[in-house]
């Protein structure tokens, strides 16, 4: 049965920990109902319960972005429970190198990379995003102010990465994670162009170098600091940008 709600409903993939969890906490703090997408139902429920204990309206949703069955089940559950979705944050992502900081990830060197690693990274960071957006679009179309935010990375910027004097050219070259975020940026623009006429704003966010499991806690920003730009893009007004790429400091070059 539909449960009519006046609160905005936000779905965040990979929200059981790290930046995704901080995004969920901040959106809940703004009064939204937050759906904690997690591939492990137990860890999703733990995160949702912690948010509820802090006063938020949070629900765990089992979602493995590489598993079409869970994507479909998640969309069906949201439709039955809420009838619509206002905000979709595609945050789930993997580096492909485990919990190794980008400064130390030498296993993605283009000339020697394992293609299976590239496929696995694209499966989650790129194809998974397409699957989730397309499953959620019918629900987003029922929102008065639908917003989609894709969690990208400064490293996905071709302009920044190709500057030989910049900090990103100094990172170990990557044929997996970095190109996956460039592809995610390209997808952001293509979805934005398709959905502009419907008022669905689609943007990419670069959280910065954030202290999480994904870099073995070498990042210098807190998850809350990394989440802030995502939350800003998730709560844009009708006159807000679409097809943009932003960090906390403002627009980034593609
Ligand atoms: N940390 C940084 O400095 C940084 C910088 C730039 C961009 N980012 C991006 O920020 C996003 C969040 O990263 P994070 O640093 O917070 O990493 P994290 O702590 O490792 O969290 C990643 C989240 O994604 C989930 N996930 C991975 N594969 C999934 C799948 N197939 N289906 C559903 N969920 C999946 C993880 O679930 P499990 O717990 O089950 O593994 C976890 O909840 C990623 O897209 C990452 O690329 C991070």
From TrEMBL:
Keywords: NADP, Oxidoreductase. Gene3D superfamilies: NAD(P)-binding Rossmann-like Domain. The keyword Nucleotidyltransferase does not apply. InterPro entries: NAD(P)-bd_dom_sf, SDR_fam. It holds the Pfam family adh_short. It comes from the Bacteria. The keyword Oxidoreductase applies. Belongs to the short-chain dehydrogenases/reductases (SDR) family. This is NAD(P)-dependent dehydrogenase (Short-subunit alcohol dehydrogenase family). The lineage of its organism: Bacteria, Bacillati, Actinomycetota, Actinomycetes, Streptosporangiales.
